[in-house]
Amino acid sequence: MKLKIFVYTFFLLLLLLLQSTLLGYARIYNVKPNLLVIFIVCVALLRGNVEGATVGFFAGLLLDMAFGKILGFYCLLGFYLGLAVGSVNRRLYRENYLVVVFFTFIATVLYEAAVYILSNFMTGRLELLMPFTVKILPEAAYNSIVSIIVFFIVIKISHKFEETSKAARKY
């Protein structure tokens, strides 16, 4: 259990650091991938809704502390994202890359649409077509491509956790 906490904390901090520094140079059409959303989706698909919701909560908490205006906004969205994606993991072949690409695309669209709608709700300027075509759909496509790399890493971590769990049960 301590190993899981350490590994998840390490990867969350590493992905936040990459997202806030180096990915600024990897922009395509002024859109960069959201590595923490990708990580939430990958963990939730492979490890279930409890770990997905937990990772989503803490990833959102890191986003709140780094970029958020209100503490708890991204935290709640990450929690619900991990819970929703993790709830379908038993019905699918989880280690299929196409499943991850599809769920990353859908999760990014829902996550970014929720961020846009909830953050612009009070201003009264809710344009839905322009943000979808300029920001949300390109980011979802970009996240889907990057999710293949992140999913490969999360699969390796998940297999390591399972091996450690099996070795601990033998004794």
What does this structure look like?
The chain contains 6 helices and no strands. Helix content is 76%, strand content 0%. The chain has a single domain, classed as Arp2/3 complex 21 kDa subunit ARPC3 (Orthogonal Bundle). The model has no long low-confidence stretch (mean pLDDT 86). With 171 residues, the chain is mostly helical. The relative contact order is 0.14.
How would you summarize what this structure contains?
It contains six helices and no strands.
Give the tags.
6 helices, mainly alpha, 171 residues, single chain, Arp2/3 complex 21 kDa subunit ARPC3, 76% helix
Terminus-to-terminus distance: 16 Å
What sort of overall outline do the alpha carbons produce when their principal axes are compared? globular
Under the CATH scheme, the architecture is Orthogonal Bundle
- Low-pLDDT ranges: none
Helix-strand blueprint:
Elements lengths: L1 H19 L14 H13 L1 H18 L6 H14 L10 H24 L8 H42 L1
